[in-house]
Amino acid sequence: MVASERDEVNKKMEEEAFDRKREIKAFDDTKAGVKGLVDSGITTVPRIFIGPPETSKASNNSTSQQYKFPIIDLRGIDEDQAKRKEMVEKVRDASGTWGFFQVINHGIPDDVLEEMLKGVRGFHEQETEVRKQWYTRENARRVFYHSNFDLYSAPVTNWRDTLSCLMAPNPPTPHDLPSVCSEIFIKYSKEVTKLGHSLLELFSEALGLEPNHLKDMDCAEGLTILGHYYPACPQPELTLGASKHEDNDFLTILLQDQIGGLQVLYQNQWVDVPPTPGALVVNIGDFLQLVSNDKFVSAQHRALANRVGPRVSAASFFTTNLVASSKLYGPIKELLSEDDPPKYRETTIKDYTTYFNAKGLDGISALLHYRL
């Protein structure tokens, strides 16, 4: 047998020996997430986390040096009309090109930001048996913890665990949340909601609409906060913290720590989103691209795995109440014309989210499914 034939036989035997569904089920049954794997002392990345070579960190080096990531200073947002007009122009430019920007002087105190990151980390670093009490795949629950919402549907498993908390429209009580982080989650959600409303006003004005237009569409009726935990990875070149994807909401406000790893796809290049002390990352979600009729873009982004860790972040997703709302969303009529007809069919948030979740993070935009 020649070497090439032997390699093919070995490869086939290896593939037959690897039962992905069985491995995923075994991982899920531990209810300990990626954190549990790291705690067990593993020195190699399990097969379910290894993606194809083109998705690896090594084959997609960032070209951040070529680009200046947008930073918008919100100081004086409600006091100086000239400054506000300048902010609106910057928001319009960043939202229509990058789909991402950072905000500074946003009004949320630094100590609240620090306490929020500590709260997320505190949850994930509890004793495994305590953490397991919150583990479930029932997405209908208001508060739950798991690893990879698309564990059974995605082509590859991501190196991260998540605590998911539905904070609006019906805020949870402290008893509904894990005790280790309940107080700060409630406090932070109030602060980030105010910022979200201010940003929606800027987005509305950037689209040439009245300031309250997007808020009146209930774009910020619901708020879900995801506390992500990316443990240190022994082989970060083989996997990702979060695969390439877009967010299925109107608006995301991300609080990240100083480790870094978030990248956005800009002009077909991966660009690092630099950790900036006191700053928050803002990105356009699919629904805002849909209702703006492509005037704003929901950019693809990903999170790298890292030998240093854990990396901790808190992502605030603004959308409508997924359970109760049967409201149809389509391109805003005031933005349409004979030369710019609607590019998407109408859909409910619930139907869109169901499709998004079933598809998983496969690198393909869910918006394509709704494009006319």
Automatic annotation (TrEMBL):
The answer to whether keyword Nucleotide-binding applies is no
Pfam families in the cross-refs: 2OG-FeII_Oxy (PF03171), DIOX_N (PF14226)
Q: Give a GO biological-process term.
A: response to molecule of fungal origin
Q: Which residues form the Fe2OG dioxygenase domain?
A: 219-320
Which UniProt keywords are given for this protein, alphabetically ordered? Iron, Metal-binding, Oxidoreductase, Vitamin C
User: Which InterPro entries does the annotation name?
Assistant: DIOX_N, IPNS-like_FE2OG_OXY, IPNS-like_sf, Oxoglu/Fe-dep_dioxygenase_dom
A GO molecular function annotation here is: metal ion binding
This protein's record includes keyword Iron: yes
Task: Note the PANTHER family from the entry.
Answer: OS03G0690500 PROTEIN (PTHR10209:SF859), OXIDOREDUCTASE, 2OG-FE II OXYGENASE FAMILY PROTEIN (PTHR10209)
Q: Which family does it belong to?
A: Belongs to the iron/ascorbate-dependent oxidoreductase family.
The entry's protein name is Fe2OG dioxygenase domain-containing protein
